[in-house]
Amino acid sequence: MRNPSSDTSCPPGRTGRPRSATADAAILAATRDALVELGWSKLTMGDVSARAGVAKTTLYRRWSGKSELVVDAVAELFDSLELPDRGSLEGDIEYVVLQFAALLRRPEARTALMAVVAESTRDEALRDRIRSAIVDRQKRLVVLGRERAQARGELPYEEDESLAAHTTDLIFDVIAGTVVHRALVSSEPVDELWVATFTALLMYGLQGSPAGPSGPSGPAPAV
Description:
The protein is an all-alpha fold.
C-alpha cells in the first residue's frame, strides 16, 4: 500500500487534479488532533474536514471512512521512525526502542494506536489495513538492522529467504509487542535502564546458543 502522505499523483483511472502531499499531511494531523480531543466514538469525517479546512468530499476521495483515515494518521507517525547506524547491533536496538517509546509518549500516537487496535478486534478489514500500513512497513527497521549486523559479522547470513522472513517477523513482534505492552498496557517507563536490560536479553536470543529443537546440547537455529 502506498503512503497517502507521499502520493502526489492521481490514482489510475481517476481524473482531476493531482493529490497534494501538503493537504494530505494537514488532514492526517487534523485527524490525530481530533482523535485526542474527541475520542474514537465521537470522531467524524466532518470534524476532520473542518479542522483541516477541506471539504468532506476531499476526504472521501482519499479514504473510504474513518477507520482507514485513522490508520493512515497513525502510520504517518510510525513512518518517522529511523535507524541511524550506531556502530553495533546493540546500539541500533537501543536507539530504535528509545525512539519508539518516545513516539508512544505522544498523546496523539497513544490515543490513535489504542483506538485502531481496539476497533480492529471487531473489524477484519481494519486489521488487514493496520498490518499493511503500519506493521509491514515498520519491519523495514528490522530488515535494515539485521543487514547491518550481518555486514559487521555480528549475525550470520540466512540463505533461506522464508526463514529470514520468519526471523524478521519474530524480532519485530518481540520488540514492538514488548514496548507497546510496557508503555501502553502496563504504563511503566521505557527509560534507558529498562531499554539496556531489554536489549541485553534480546541480544542473548539473537547471538546466544540456548537449547534448540535438537535438545539441550543441540544447535539452536540462527536468528
